[in-house]
Amino acid sequence: MSKTLYLMLHGQTLFNQLHLIQGSCDSPLTEEGIDSAKVAGKYFKDAGIKFDHAYSSTQERAADTLELITDQPYQRLKGLKEWDFGVFEAQPEFLNPKNQPERHSYGDFFVQYHGESDYDVQNRMNETLTRIMQQADDGQSILAVSHGGAIHAFLLKWMDWNVMDEKVRLHNCAVVKLTFEDEKFTFEEVIQNN
């Protein structure tokens, strides 16, 4: 029997609003970010979706988002953190490189600047989310609040790029619904909450 993962992007932050690169560094949720998280919480409540377990990255923007959605206990995990962009942290977004076409991401660009590669992020996200889902019982629903770059890297492992390009738009407070069965993640839908 399958298990359901609701993989959510945190609410809008000050750095998002200011168009600054935000990976391992942190900034607070804006009023819009707070409101969007509350809308997401209402969506889950109205849809009758209850979480058997909840997780967030160790970064405050993710934990704060989760706490606006549910008051249940949760665990903070480093494996769900955002991509580390090295010395580019807190710099203007226009400094981001172009995606490497063959990898559909920044690839290993940030490694030379003391950051992570897309595969580093993908591997730690996959290991963390797989472990979370393996620990859940059949039929359970899990909420995990993470970050845009980290979620993108994770989805590249499990989705065909053309399908992902067509169906996945990761805005603040978007939720990617996946099922987990036979050690595999399967994309179901994206729920937009902004």
What does it look like?
Strand 5 (175-181) and strand 6 (184-191) form a beta hairpin. This protein has 194 residues and is α/β, with parallel strands linked by helices. The chain has helices spanning 14-18, 31-46, 60-69, 118-135, 148-158, 161-167, and strands at residues 3-9, 53-57, 75-77, 141-146, 175-181, 184-191. Helix 2 crosses helix 3 (60-69) and helix 4 crosses helix 5 (148-158). It has a single domain (3-191), classed as Rossmann fold. The chain has a six-stranded mixed sheet, with helices on both faces. It contains six helices and six strands. The model has no long low-confidence stretch (mean pLDDT 96). The N and C termini lie far apart (32 Å).
Helix-strand blueprint:
Elements: E1 3-9, H1 14-18, H2 31-46, E2 53-57, H3 60-69, E3 75-77, H4 118-135, E4 141-146, H5 148-158, H6 161-167, E5 175-181, E6 184-191
Parallel strand pairs: 1-4, 2-3, 2-4
Antiparallel strand pairs: 1-5, 5-6
Task: Give me some keywords for this one.
194 residues, Rossmann fold, globular, hydrolase, Histidine phosphatase family protein, EC 3.1.3.-
Short description:
By secondary structure, this protein is α/β, with parallel strands linked by helices. 35% of the residues lie in helices and 19% in strands.
